[in-house]
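Lab notebook page, bench 4
Experiment: in silico fold of construct C2
Operator: M.H.
Input chain length: 197 residues
Purpose: comparison with the prior construct
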Amino acid sequence: MQAPSRAVFQWVQELLAETGTSLSDLDCIAFGAGPGSFTGVRVAVAVAQGLGYARGLPLCPVSTLAALAAGALRNSGADAAACCLDARLGEVYFGTYRRDPAQGVVALADDVLLKPEDVRLADEGSFLAVGAGWATYPQITARFQSRILGCVADCLPSAADVARLARPRFFRGSLVSSAAARPNYLRERVASPREAD
């Protein structure tokens, strides 16, 4: 069985071959910076750093929740999305975004890590509820039922949406070096405290 790290770089090579592109054709490397699964976010950052170092390319970090919002909004008539992912340990990753013709989406507030009961929406407007967190914690949906246009709980962030969001950021110069790339975990604690014996 192939090591996962080797498989990732093989997939990169296959994608480049499929599109008739080489690493030397790229201007930057976009990556999903989180929040999300610790392992997934670490792998995304490490692969982006490795490719960036190898080719001397800048990196463009993109929020996982922004990519989630962009994909859902592109396929709907809604103007804003409230993205909610299960962060485990009784918490959610939450972010709100509105459609923007120039940037794809713009954040209405910073992405946050919250207890479900602490989730808040902006004072005005309606939102498309996006992400598995809405299904995991239906009490959030119940609280905001009058402001939810619909729910797309099975939506996942895609690499294509990360790339779409990175394009205008690249032209604005919103880039980082490989050395400066950091995952956006939103949480430092990864396990529940051990119960006393």
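Observations: Residues 38-55 form the longest helix (18 residues). The CA atoms of residues 100 and 106 lie 6 Å apart.
Next step: discuss at group meeting.
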